[in-house]
Design goal:
single chain, alpha/beta, about 375 residues, six-stranded mixed β-sheet, 3 domains, rod-shaped, Rossmann fold, 6 strands, about 10% strand
C-alpha cells in the first residue's frame, strides 16, 4: 500500500515538473510561433516629442537586432493606420493597443513610457499579445546620471534583449558617468553665466532643452503649462515661440475688437441716455417756463383790468367829487398800467424761452 502511494506521488511530481517545464518552454519560445511585432510611439514625461520619436525608432532597431522578431517598419505602420484613419497619439489603453495590433495584423504590440526626472531616465516597456489581449512581458530599467545617448545605446538595447528572452546586461561605463558629471557641472556653470538662477536649474533640467533654448523661453515669458506643451510638441523652440507670438497677437487683436465693440455699445448707450436727458430737461423746462409765462400773463390782465376800472371810475365821477379823489383814480390807473407793462415784459421773456425749449424738445425726437 505504501509503495503504491509513493509511486503515485512520484508520478504526480513528474507530471508537475514536466508541466512547469512546458510552461517555461512556452514562455521562452512563445515569440517563435508568431514573432511579428509593431512598436508604438513611446509616451513620456520630461522628454520632448522628438526625443520620444528617436527612442521609439531605436527600440524598433534593437528589437530587430535580437533576431527574435519581425518588426513592422514605422513608415508602413503609419501608412496602414493612416488608411484606417486611426490616430496613434493618445493610444495608451489596453483596448486601443489591441485594436492597433489587429489593424497591423501582428502578433504582439510593444509600447511603453520614458520618464525623465533630473538626470534619471526611467524606461518601462511592455509587450501585449494581440490575440489574447494579455501582457506577455514587462521590462523596466532606470538609468541614473545618464545623458540621452546612454538611453539610446544602453537602456533600450538591454530592454529589447530582455523582451526577447536574452541577456541584457550592457552597462553605462564609468568613463561615461564621469563625462556626464563633467557635462553637468559645465552646463550648470553656463546656466549661471547667462544670468539664470540656481532656483531655475531644476525646472530647466525637467524640460530637456538646451540652455540657450531655455533662456529664450524665459525671456519670452512662457508659462509652465506652455513649456510642457513645447516639450511635448514636434516643434523647435523658435518655431513654437513664433507660433505662440502669432497666437498672442491674434488674441490681442480679438481683445481689441471686443473692446472696440464694447466702446461702441457704451457710446451708443451714452448718446441714448444723453438724448433721453435732453428730452426730459427740455420738456420739463418748456412746461415750467410756459407756466411762469402764463402766470405773468394773468398778472398783466389783472393789472390792466384794475387800470381800466380806475379810468372808468374817473370818467363816471359825478359833480361834487373832490379833486383829490379824482387824482387818486388817475394815479391808480397809471400805476396799474405801469405794473401791467412790467409783467408783460416778463411774460414775453418767459414765453420766448418756453418756445426755445419747446423747439429743442421737438428737435430731440429727430436724431
Amino acid at each position: 500500500m505504501k509503495n503504491m502511494v509513493r509511486n503515485t506521488i512520484n508520478r504526480f511530481q513528474k507530471v508537475v515538473c514536466i508541466t512547469s517545464l512546458l510552461i517555461v518552454f512556452e514562455q521562452l519560445y512563445a515569440f517563435e510561433k508568431d514573432a511579428s511585432i509593431a512598436v508604438l510611439e513611446l509616451a513620456g514625461n520630461g522628454v520632448s516629442v522628438s526625443n520620444l520619436g528617436g527612442f521609439s525608432n531605436r527600440l524598433r532597431t534593437e528589437m530587430f537586432n535580437t533576431d527574435k522578431f519581425t518588426v513592422v517598419e514605422r513608415s508602413l505602420m503609419n501608412e496602414i493606420l493612416k488608411e484606417q484613419k486611426f490616430q496613434q497619439s493618445g493610444c495608451t489603453t489596453q483596448e486601443c493597443v489591441i485594436e492597433v495590433g489587429q489593424m497591423l495584423s501582428v502578433g504582439y504590440i510593444v509600447t511603453g513610457n520614458v520618464d525623465k526626472v533630473g538626470n534619471l531616465y526611467s524606461v518601462a516597456i511592455r509587450m501585449v499579445n494581440v490575440e489574447t489581449g494579455k501582457i506577455v512581458k514587462i521590462e523596466k530599467e532606470d538609468c541614473d546620471q545618464c545623458q540621452i545617448e546612454d538611453v539610446f545605446k544602453v537602456t533600450l538595447y538591454n530592454l529589447a534583449r530582455k523582451l526577447a528572452g536574452l541577456a541584457g546586461d550592457r552597462k553605462v561605463s564609468k568613463r561615461t558617468t564621469v563625462q556626464n558629471e563633467e557635462r553637468e557641472i559645465e552646463s550648470f556653470l553656463r546656466f549661471k553665466k547667462i544670468g539664470l538662477s540656481e532656483d531655475e536649474w531644476g525646472a530647466y533640467k525637467e524640460t530637456g532643452l538646451s540652455i540657450m533654448d531655455y533662456k529664450k523661453i524665459k525671456t519670452f515669458g512662457l508659462s509652465k503649462l506652455k513649456v510642457q506643451e513645447l516639450v511635448k510638441s514636434n516643434l523647435t523652440v523658435d518655431e513654437f515661440l513664433t507660433k505662440e507670438q502669432e497666437r498672442l497677437q491674434e488674441e490681442k487683436k480679438v481683445l481689441l475688437e471686443k473692446q472696440k465693440k464694447q466702446d461702441e455699445i457704451k457710446k451708443k448707450k451714452t448718446i441714448k441716455a444723453a438724448k433721453l436727458s435732453l428730452k426730459i430737461i427740455t420738456g420739463t423746462a418748456t412746461v415750467l417756463l410756459s407756466g411762469v409765462a402764463l402766470y405773468y400773463h394773468n398778472k398783466v390782465q389783472d393789472h390792466i383790468q384794475k387800470a381800466n376800472d380806475a379810468i372808468a371810475n374817473y370818467n363816471a365821477a359825478e359833480s361834487g367829487v373832490s379833486s383829490t379823489e379824482l387824482r387818486l383814480y388817475k394815479s391808480t390807473s397809471l400805476v396799474e398800467f405801469d405794473k401791467a407793462d412790467k409783467y408783460e415784459k416778463n411774460r414775453n421773456q418767459f414765453f420766448l424761452l418756453s418756445l426755445g425749449f419747446c423747439a429743442v424738445f421737438g428737435i430731440s425726437f429727430t436724431f
